Structure formats: structure tokens, C-alpha cells
């Protein structure tokens, strides 16, 4: 029965690599759409926990983008660090200080104006630097980066930033303790 | 050793027969999980009952084996309550966030396939070669870690959205516990990667094909840490503070009833099965084992895999019947002050041994030096722990409290 | 390479469908008769006390999440190194040990400062009003749904409930 079914559909042509590329673009468009909608909902929602959850969707979408580009280790890092740790920290922060979020009308409008300004600036700076650094260069899409390759480049080309990060982490930890201790 | 992990099924052009096989594997994995959850819940209740000198479920089906099914069907007929202070959207979302990662993390587990004698673990289905696992992405095992970090959200949001005191306390406790032990879990896995040289689960299994299980080559310590941290990650006894009945009623799912409660329950047991399967994959050689009768060679790896997983499931139940629940400060101390430093130190020691071996250093020199460095670090840590204990809790404070109450 | 994730997506869809269908089936089969007793927060029938808006969780939970981020990042850097540590040799080992030492150092500082102490601390001091003779169960506890008659007469009138409790 199954064999018959399979022999029937086996006659159809398999996807060629160009068609796979089309599928990739369709997925890209879908993820991008979800990310944009979630980002819009995030800044417009009234509930701060909902905002954090919309942010999770945006970050998960970014992880999906990395997978589409073949950068799987970066995608997993995105999930582990941003979704699994940083947003959890946000949520703890929200639960720690439950209630008391003053949202007065005027204050909110004032803040929104600043937020729009900052957002426009960020978009301008990042897109400007992206366009400037890549120009017409075409990236090699046949070379997915394996995790071992990432290890090689961290401990080769990027060894100084890597060690600098340890100092940054040290400062972050000590800073958090100092601030928390003062509160108690 | 370079292994480019991928399922041969999906590496070439994707035709419709490939899609059909893929969907078949997905459906089989789904059904397997559902049936094994049903049996595992029965198994746990029966074993615990034996250990308590009770009979346990005995009426539904032979030896009560259909008890879980009966309970599940019953829950469909129960009223689904929405607490008045609940955040409606998040309250409805939380069971999904618990259940979906539980399903997905099983996808990377190889449940069979012959990896011995140069075999690559693939089997042939309708003329296509494929691995006996749903997916084999190159970052394999990290996908499991990523999904378990998403599962924290299910617990956390369930408690928060209930708008009630005990669920909130339970969920904050639970999520702090889960993220604490996730660090220990990740570090103990890192030691395995030192030997496997790949993150893909099929690669890790084929690296252990000749009885050189990672359990022995990583030196037992990472395995012990993995099992303890895994038990805590699952919120299983003795780490089930999340649902410490005496303090928190049912913990994060107190307000959940009917099918929503059933889904949390399902996710919990699915995670238990997946955690056992991952432990088997990482440390106990996965489906590797002797192939006794050549005619049915494909059966043996599957059999060995299930036997190994069963041993873990029994251990989880055994722990539940044996050990009393930890206190919250003991739980946090165990995770942060013992497991994380120990797994970190062991990881660096094993890595140093490997590198020393390559450079032809004498093992008799590296081991003592490594141990001296580690014990210095342990002494330092111990000093810090002592200092913190001295400055935070004194007998004097306690007597002060009891005097205050007496007056 | 990306096609390796197709089965994961298929399983995701199946899992979501399963949960959604369960909800629909349960909605069709289950009775629906909510009343205020059922919908009250579960505190064994007692109406929850008004929560103090300034009440907060211990800051330690926040600290644990903060420390976890740092360890998570550290572990993430360990993985690629673990895969290629043999080819990177002594240089890689030294680099990782320096990195780990920096994090370990701050970890020691953290523990020494008592950031991971979960036992009772000095701040736990008794309030003067912990024991008060004027407060007892009859004037502090209000029971959910007992003061009012619920929907469809499911809730018993005030008087008979109290009689029942006395007799049992």
C-alpha cells in the first residue's frame, strides 16, 4: 500500500538546488514578517510581560534567520543566551518589582518621542555601516560554518576580543553584586 | 576526526518520497513518545507502589497498564477553569511552551542503527538510507540545551499568569532552579565534546562504537554531575521543590485543571524520557551493544537503547522513593558551589590531559600538577563559602527571632 | 544543511496540532459551569489577603539569573574550543584557562560576598505584631463564595455551611 503510494509520487521531480533557494527565500520572508509584527506589538503593548514575550518572538526569529544562513552554532547561541538567559533575567526583574509601573499619559508620550528618535538613529547607523562594509560583495552561501571552524577563528583571529570578554563578564558580575548588596 | 553530521536522507535533493519517509519518522517518533509516556507513568506508579508495599494501579487493563490512558481520558471530561485574576493569553500559552520543547528535544536522539564495524548507523527504507532519529543537525545536542532553556518559560509563565500566590512562588523557584542546573548540565556535556569532536548526536554515538563509552573516557565525574543536574532540571525528586506540597500546594500548575494540567504532566514525563535518552547517548554509547543474532541485526541496537533508557527511568523512580526533598538553600548550594565548580575544573583537567598527551608530556607529571591547581581553587572556593556563611547566618540571629516570638 | 531542520519543523507542527486538538476536544466534552468559588485563586477557600504592592522577591533570584548569563556565555565559548582543542594545542589551553580564571575569580568574589547564600539572613527580624490576641480565624479569614450564593444555587447559604463545619 505504502509502496504503491511512494511509487506513484516518485515519478515527480525532486527539488533542484535553485528551488531550495526559493524555499529559503520564502522562509526568510515569513520569518521577517513575524519578526516585524512581533516587534511592533512589543513596543505598543501595555503589559510589560507581554512585551518581553514579543521580544522572545523577535529573538527566536533572528535565530531562525541564522539557521537559514547555515550559521547553526550562532543560532543556538542566540537561543541559549538571549532567550534562555537574558529575557529570563528581564522576567525575574519584572516579577521582583511587581506592580508599581507608573504609566502616566504625558510621561509615556515624552518617552515615546525619545524612543522613536533613538530607533531611527539606530536603523540609520546600522544600515549605513552594513551597506558601507559589504557594498556589492556577494557572500559565499555554499560554506556553512561549523562549530569547530568557529573555535578556530575565536582562538586565532579573535583571541584578543575573546580575552577582553572575560574581563567584561568579570565587571558585569561584580557590578551586579555591588548593586544588589546596596539594595538590601 | 572530522564528522560532517547530517542525515543522508535530507542531504541530496528532496523528492516526495524523501518527504514521505521524513513524515513517517516524525509520526513514529510522536507515537513512540506518547505510548512510552503512558507506560512510564504506569511503570513509575507500579514501582513506587512496590517500594511502598502497596499494590498500585491494578484495575484498568492487565496489571493496571491502561491506568494512564484512563486518567488521561478522564481529564478530557473535566471542567477547564480560568482563574479570575489570570492573564488569559499567557495562561493559555504556557502549556504549549512546556509541551512543544518536550516533543522537539526527542528529535535528536538516535534510537537505533548499527554504528559498529564502521557502520554509519543508517538503515535503508524504500531505497533511501536514513538515520534512526528524526533529525541530525550538526549542532545536535545543543538543540536539546536550547529547547530546555525554552522549557523554562512554560513553568515561569504558568506560575506568573495564574495570578495567584503559590503558583508564582513555585514558578520563580522552579525557573531559578532550572537555570542554575542548566549551567552544570552544559559544563558536564562539554567534557563529552572533548572526546567526540562533534556536537551531532549520531557523531557522538559513533565515537563510542567500540565499547569506549564516554562514561569511562571522561572519568565518571561528568556523568554523575549530568545525572544530578538532569534530575534537578526535570524537577524530579529529590529536587521537586517546585511542587513541594507542604509549602506550595501544586507549585506552578496549581491553577491548571483539565487538559491543560494533563499537558504539563505529559511534558514532565516526556522530558524525563528524553533526559534519560540523552544521558544514554552522551555517556553510555547510545544504541551501541553486541549484535548477537546476525539475522535480526537491526533489532539489537534498538533493544540495547531501550534497556539502557529503562535503567535510567528506574533510577529516577528509585530516587523518588528513596531520597527526601532538599531544602531550597541546600539545592542552590549543591548546584552553584559544588556541581558547577567541579564540572568546570574537571573539564579543564581532562582537556589539559588530552593536549598533554598530544605533546608527549608525561601523564604522571600532568595529573599531580592539575590536581594541585584544582585543589588550590577548591580551597579558595571553600574559604569564600565559609566567609559568606559566617557573615550571613548566626545562631544569635535565630535566638533573637525566637525570643521575639516568645514575648 | 538547512534541510536537516525540516523534520524538526514537521514535529513542531504536529506537537502544536496535538495540543490544539486536545483543547478543542476537551472544550467539547467538558462541562462548563464556572462560579466564583472555582475561579478564586486556590488558597483552600480563603480569600487571598490584599497583596502589598511594595512586596518584592528576594534580590537573589535576580542575581542567580545574572550569574547564569555569565556562565552561559562562558560555556558557549567552551563548546567550539572543546571541538578543536587538540588542533589548537597549548596556546588554546592557555587562552581558555586565562578566560576561565577571570570568571572564576569573580565567582569567588560573588560567593564571598554572600550573593549565593539562600539560608535565612540577618534581615529576618520578627515584627512586633506577629502574635496578636485580637486576631483569630473568625475575624481574619473570609471564605470564598460562602458569603454569597453562587450560580445555580451551587453554593450553600451562609448559615448551613457553618453548621456543617461545626458538626464535622
Structure description:
The complex is a heterotrimer of chains A (184), B (407) and C (168). With 184 residues, chain A is an all-alpha fold. Chain A has seven helices and no strands. Chain A has helices spanning 2-10, 17-44, 48-68, 72-96, 105-134, 147-154, 159-183. In chain A, α2 (17-44) runs antiparallel to α3 (48-68) and α3 (48-68) packs antiparallel against α4 (72-96). Chain B has one domain. Chain B is built from 15 helices and two strands. Chain B has a two-stranded antiparallel ribbon. In chain B, α4 packs antiparallel against α5 (140-161), α4 runs parallel beside α11 and α9 (221-233) runs antiparallel to α13 (328-359). Residues 394-407 of chain B have low confidence and may be disordered. The radius of gyration of chain C is 29 Å and the shape is flat. In chain C, 35% of the residues are buried. In chain C, α3 (59-83) runs antiparallel to α4. Chain C has two domains: 17-47 and 141-168, no CATH class; 52-117, Methane Monooxygenase Hydroxylase, Chain G, domain 1, CATH 1.20.58.1610. At the B-C interface, α2, α4, α6, α11 and α13 of B face α1, α2, α3 and α4 of C.
Give keywords.
heterotrimer; B: 407 residues; mainly alpha; two-stranded antiparallel sheet; 2 strands; 2% strand; disordered C terminus; C: 168 residues; Methane Monooxygenase Hydroxylase, Chain G, domain 1; 2 domains; 6 helices; flat
Summarize the structure.
The complex is a heterotrimer of chains A (184), B (407) and C (168). With 184 residues, chain A is mainly α. In chain A, 79% of the residues lie in helices and 0% in strands.
Please write out the topology.
The complex is a heterotrimer of chains A (184), B (407) and C (168).
Chain A: H1 2-10, H2 17-44, H3 48-68, H4 72-96, H5 105-134, H6 147-154, H7 159-183
Chain B: H1 8-11, H2 16-51, H3 67-76, H4 88-105, E1 122-125, E2 128-131, H5 140-161, H6 165-196, H7 201-206, H8 214-217, H9 221-233, H10 245-248, H11 258-283, H12 299-322, H13 328-359, H14 363-392, H15 395-406
Antiparallel strand pairs in B: 1-2
Chain C: H1 6-29, H2 36-39, H3 59-83, H4 85-112, H5 137-140, H6 158-167
Helix pairs in contact in C: 3-4
Amino acid at each position: 500500500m505504502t509502496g504503491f503510494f511512494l511509487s506513484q509520487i516518485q515519478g515527480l521531480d525532486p527539488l533542484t538546488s535553485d528551488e531550495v533557494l526559493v524555499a529559503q527565500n520564502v522562509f526568510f520572508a515569513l520569518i521577517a514578517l513575524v519578526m516585524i509584527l512581533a516587534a511592533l506589538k512589543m513596543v505598543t503593548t501595555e503589559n510589560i510581560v507581554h512585551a518581553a514575550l514579543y521580544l522572545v518572538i523577535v529573538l527566536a526569529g533572528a535565530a531562525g534567520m541564522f539557521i537559514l544562513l547555515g550559521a547553526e552554532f550562532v543560532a543556538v547561541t542566540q537561543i541559549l543566551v538571549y532567550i534562555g538567559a537574558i529575557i529570563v533575567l528581564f522576567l525575574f526583574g519584572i516579577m521582583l518589582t511587581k506592580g508599581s509601573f507608573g504609566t502616566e499619559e504625558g510621561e509615556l508620550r515624552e518617552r515615546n518621542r525619545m524612543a522613536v528618535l533613538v530607533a531611527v538613529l539606530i536603523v540609520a547607523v546600522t544600515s549605513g555601516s552594513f551597506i558601507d562594509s559589504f557594498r556589492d560583495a556577494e557572500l559565499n552561501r555554499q560554506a556553512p560554518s561549523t562549530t569547530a571552524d568557529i573555535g578556530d577563528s575565536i582562538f586565532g583571529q579573535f583571541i584578543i576580543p575573546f580575552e577582553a570578554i572575560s574581563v567584561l563578564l568579570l565587571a558585569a558580575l561584580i557590578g551586579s553584586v555591588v548593586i544588589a548588596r546596596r539594595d538590601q | 576526526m572530522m564528522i560532517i553530521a547530517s542525515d543522508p536522507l535530507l542531504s541530496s535533493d528532496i523528492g516526495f518520497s524523501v518527504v514521505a519517509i521524513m513524515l513517517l519518522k516524525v509520526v513514529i517518533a510522536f507515537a513512540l513518545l506518547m505510548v512510552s509516556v503512558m507506560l512510564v507513568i504506569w511503570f513509575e506508579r507500579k514501582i513506587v507502589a512496590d517500594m511502598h508495599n502497596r499494590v498500585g494501579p491494578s484495575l484498568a487493563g492487565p496489571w493496571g497498564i491502561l491506568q494512564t490512558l484512563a486518567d488521561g481520558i478522564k481529564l478530557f471530561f473535566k471542567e477547564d477553569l480560568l482563574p479570575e485574576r489570570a492573564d488569559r493569553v499567557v495562561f493559555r500559552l504556557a502549556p504549549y511552551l512546556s509541551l512543544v520543547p518536550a516533543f522537539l528535544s526527542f528529535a535528536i536522539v538516535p534510537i537505533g542503527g548499527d554504528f559498529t564495524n564502521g557502520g554509519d548507523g543508517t538503515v535503508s527504507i524504500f531505497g533511501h538510507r536514513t538515520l534512526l532519529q528524526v533529525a541530525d543537525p550538526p549542532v545536535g545536542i545543543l538543540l536539546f540545551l536550547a529547547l530546555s532553556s525554552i522549557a523554562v518559560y512554560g513553568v515561569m509563565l504558568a506560575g506568573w499568569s495564574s495570578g495567584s500566590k503559590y503558583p508564582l512562588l513555585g514558578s520563580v523557584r522552579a525557573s531559578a532552579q532550572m537555570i542554575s542546573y542548566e549551567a552544570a548540565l552544559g559544563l558536564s556535556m562539554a567534557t563529552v565534546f572533548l572526546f567526540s569532536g562533534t556536537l551531532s548526536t549520531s557523531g557522538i554515538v559513533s565515537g563510542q562504537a567500540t565499547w569506549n563509552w564516554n562514561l569511562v573516557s571522561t572519568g565518571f565525574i561528568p556523568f554523575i554531575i549530568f545525572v544530578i543536574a538532569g534530575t534537578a532540571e526535570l524537577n524530579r525528586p529529590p529536587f521537586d521543590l517546585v511542587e513541594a506540597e507542604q509549602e506550595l500546594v501544586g507549585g506552578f500548575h496549581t491553577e491548571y485543571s483539565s487538559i491543560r494540567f494533563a499537558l504539563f504532566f505529559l511534558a514532565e514525563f516526556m522530558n524525563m524520557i528524553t533526559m534519560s535518552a540523552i544521558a544514554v547517548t552522551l555517556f553510555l554509547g547510545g544504541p551501541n551493544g553486541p549484535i548477537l543474532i546476525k539475522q535480526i541485526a537491526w533489532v539489537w541496537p534498538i533493544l540495547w537503547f531501550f534497556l539502557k533508557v529503562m535503567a535510567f527511568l528506574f533510577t529516577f523512580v528509585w530516587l523518588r522513593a528513596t531520597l527526601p526533598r532538599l531544602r531550597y538553600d541546600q539545592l542552590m548550594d549543591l548546584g552553584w558551589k559544588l556541581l558547577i565548580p567541579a564540572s568546570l575544573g574537571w573539564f579543564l583537567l581532562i582537556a589539559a590531559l588530552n593536549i598533554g598527551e598530544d605533546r608527549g608530556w608525561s601523564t604522571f607529571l600532568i595529573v599531580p600538577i592539575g590536581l594541585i591547581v584544582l585543589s588550590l581553587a577548591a580551597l579558595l572556593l571553600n574559604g569564600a563559602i565559609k566567609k559568606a556563611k559566617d557573615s550571613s547566618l548566626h545562631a544569635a540571629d535565630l535566638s533573637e527571632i525566637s525570643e521575639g516570638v516568645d514575648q | 544543511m538547512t534541510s536537516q531542520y525540516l523534520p524538526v519543523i514537521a514535529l513542531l507542527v504536529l506537537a502544536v496540532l496535538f495540543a490544539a486538538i486536545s483543547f478543542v476536544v476537551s472544550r467539547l466534552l467538558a462541562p462548563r459551569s464556572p462560579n466564583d468559588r472555582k475561579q478564586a485563586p486556590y488558597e483552600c477557600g480563603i480569600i487571598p489577603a490584599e497583596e502589598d504592592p511594595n512586596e518584592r522577591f528576594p534580590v537573589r533570584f535576580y542575581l542567580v539569573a545574572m550569574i547564569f548569563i555569565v556562565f552561559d556565555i562562558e560555556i558557549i565559548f567552551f563548546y567550539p574550543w572543546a571541538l578543536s582543542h587538540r588542533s589548537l594545542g597549548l596556546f588554546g589551553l592557555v587562552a581558555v584557562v586565562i578566560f576561565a580564571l577571570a570568571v572564576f575569580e569573580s565567582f569567588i568574589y560573588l560567593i564571598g560576598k554572600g550573593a549565593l547564600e539562600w539560608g535565612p539572613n540577618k534581615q529576618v527580624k520578627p515584627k512586633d505584631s506577629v502574635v496578636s490576641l485580637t486576631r483569630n480565624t473568625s475575624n481574619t479569614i473570609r471564605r470564598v463564595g460562602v458569603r454569597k450564593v453562587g450560580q445555580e444555587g451551587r453554593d450553600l447559604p451562609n448559615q448551613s455551611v457553618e453548621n456543617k463545619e461545626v458538626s464535622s
